[in-house]
Amino acid sequence: MKPGTRPLLQVAVDTVDLDAARALIGAVYRYADIIEIGTPLILEEGLRVVEMVKAGWPDTACLADMKIMDGGFIEASSGFRRGADYVTVLALAEDKTILGALEAAASFGGRVMVDLIRVPSPAERARELRALGVDLICLHTAFDAQGDVDPLVHLRAVREAFEGHIAIAGGLGLDNVEQAVQSGADVVVVGGAIGRHPEPGSAAAAIVEALGRAST
Question: Does 3 reside within a domain?
Answer without folding.
Answer: no
